[in-house]
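User:
Note these tokens:
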Amino acid sequence: MMSMYEEVRPTPKKVVNLFSIHPSNDGVRECAGHLKRFIKSLDDSVLGAFLQFVTGSNTIAVTKIEVDFDSTQSCFTCRPIVHTCGPLLVVSSTYQSYSELSEEFSCHLREAASWAYNIV
């Protein structure tokens, strides 16, 4: 069992296994599948960036990542939202395809503005 302070090198499989997802309908189930497929496609450096974005650490230093899905259609909520204290990842459930989700997440992981954390 991993202690609270133990860091583990991330792999796509380990990261996907951290996800706590409770799909409420077929659309959410499909988006969850797209998210898992996206994570499995990442190389080590981008996977580390994803973990840094979601948890605040580029290594596995948590035992669970809650994933919630938002069905709101507005442009603002289409982007992934994170709460690193949880950690909690909020993903839009309106993605129509894997490529749409992959493009959106890849864009946010590359853009410096996505890394600005706000305390609300």
